[in-house]
Amino acid sequence: MKLSPLSVPYKAAQKGGSIVFTLAFVLFSGASAFLGSIGGPLVAIGLLGLVVVVLVGYETLYYQRYDYDLTPDTFDIRSGVVSRRNREIPLRRIQNVDISRNVVQRVLGIAALDFETAGGSDTEAAIRYVTFEEAKRLQSEIARLKRGDAEDAPEVESDELFALSDRELGIVGALSFDLRGPGILFFLLSGSIPVVSSFFEFGVEATLLALGAVAVLAAVVLVSWLAGFALAVVNYYGFRLSRTDDELLYERGLLQRYDGSIPFDKIQTLTVEDNPLKRRFGYATLAIETAGYAPGQGTQRGSEAAVPLAERDRVLSLANDIEAFGTPEFTRPPKRIRRRYAARYLIVLGVVTALLFGVNTLLGASLPWYGPLAVLPLIPIAAHYKWKHRGYWLGENHVVTRNGFWKRQTKVVPYYRIQTVIDSRTIFQRRWHVATVTIDTAGSLSLSNQDAAAVDVEATDAERIRGALEDRLVTAVAERRSHRRQAAQPFIGPVEPDVPAEENGGESADGDAVDSESSEQTDTTSRDSDPSSV
Fold first, then answer.
1. How would residue 270 be classed by pLDDT, with cut points 50, 70 and 90?
2. Where is the composition biased (Acidic residues) (predicted)?
């Protein structure tokens, strides 16, 4: 099977745009004098024509030498103009087939396909470009072959779980901030605008300096909010989520339209996320982390927002539809840990105040160095809320953790998805006789230390939690393997006995490793140190 013929002019124009821009830059630069001596604009036009001929010729050859074939077991791709490359991708390895289309591609009726495999965030193969109808056919055919359905089997029906209304899309934008805006704004204000920069020269009145700082802060907040609003609307316009028996299906995007799926058997962690503003109005976000892959986002993240924003009760209901974990009853850290959090905030406040005082003294400025002390009465309240929004719960089939106040995340992990259980204790935690139990999965967010974790639990409880998780992991993996084996068994005949996870090299049938680890950071302080120390 071949690519769409429209891929030739589209890819040629796509690659030629940067070359044309380069030629235009050359014409308006000092090199134009050199070109003038050998023909001037005629040379530029000749170069442009040559570029067009080369690009169109190359893309035509690429189109002629590119073909793919879908077999019952593999997806085969043969490509290459100068050097040939043949790839056979086993269907069992394909985790997802994602379809994406930008505005121009939608007008032309073509689409890009990305084939993702479990165990990594890189795209296994990408097809640029086929017709949208062919892309949908490949997506459904690969799903059918992976399920083992007959060729004449009826099309799998899907039930819509969630659709983002215009009002909800507006709320998503209103509650979104993009922190890349401040970096751009500070660059613009770093000296390229003399009027603003003059407010930061030493020797001006403190009041004027304070007003300038407030103006900059307001501009940063406004730019962040506008950027977040625009990105949210572009990303989640027309968002719809539906489900079949074995996967979630989603569509989203305004400028770049994504159409993909999230297989149930690849889901590692569910995350219900909110912040004070969302909690105030009763909203939350549901994110799904899969095995090292973020549908529609390639290598950018390890999770995909399954529901960008909805009422919290509805989000929890949808999460329970995917993983029936029930209603968690969290166990918080010991109450004395609030003093530890307060002490940490006091240290940060003291460092900031000391730095401002040092700047005042060394530079002879009249900065209000004592200003940060105004937040001193809020420290006990902040410490209490940090403690209040932390906790863990060991359910029948899932472990659930909760952490964060400004960005609170409630993570749900099935026991059979656990890869490693880590009991870690910093020097400060050891002085307070507490520990952190981290539940590591095969999801890619584990690379950025965003795993589910029971933070600041009693040291004795940490050992109990780790042992319980290990036991439940082994039991859950054995039960899952037993269910799969029974589903594959004929109606008559003996059933093969279960093999404990330990006898299988510590690995489950679907690659879920059984492992545990107890690690302590290097510490020269005795475990019997004063528990009131920070």
1. very high
2. 499-520
Share of the chain above pLDDT 90, in %: 46
Report the C-alpha gap between 223 and 185 in whole angstroms: 8
DSSP 302: S
Helix locations, 175-258, DSSP H: 180-188, 194-197, 206-236
> What is the Cα–Cα distance from 208 to 200, expressed in whole angstroms?
9
- Which H or E run contains 299? none
Closest CA to 443 of 408, 465, 417: 417
Specify whether the CB–CB gap between 387 and 432 falls below 8 A.
no
pTM of the model: 0.75
**Across-strand partners of 98?**
114
In contact, 220 and 213? CB cutoff 8 Å: no
Those residues with Cβ within 8 angstroms of residue 426's Cβ, 6 or more apart along the chain or in another chain: 521, 523
| Structure-token match 């850290």, residue found | 333
Q: Alpha-carbon distance 75 to 141, whole Å? A: 11
| In the chain, where the domains are located | 7-65, 172-235, 337-385
Residues 499-527 as b/e (b if ≥16 CB within 10 A, e otherwise) read eebeeeeeebbbebbbebeeeeeeeeeee
Q: Which DSSP category does 457 fall into?
A: E
Please give the structure tokens belonging to residue 85: 């490359």
Backbone Cα Rg of the chain: 29
Give the C-alpha separation, 203 to 287, whole Å: 50
**Per-residue pLDDT, 21:** 72
Q: Side by side, which strands form the sheet with 247-252?
A: 123-131, 110-117, 94-102, 256-263, 247-252, 240-243, 159-163
pLDDT for the residue numbered 150:
82
Concatenated DSSP letters of 121-165: SSEEEEEEEEEHHHHHHHHHHHHHHHHT--TTPPPPP-EEEEE--
**Interval 344-370: pLDDT, tens:** 999 999 999 999 888 888 877 777 888
At CA 249, angle to CA 243 and CA 250, rounded to 5? 130
Helix, coil or strand: residue 227: helix
Alpha-carbon torsion (97, 102, 104, 109), positive or negative:
positive
Please report which residue ranges of 323-411 form alpha helices under DSSP H: 337-363, 379-388
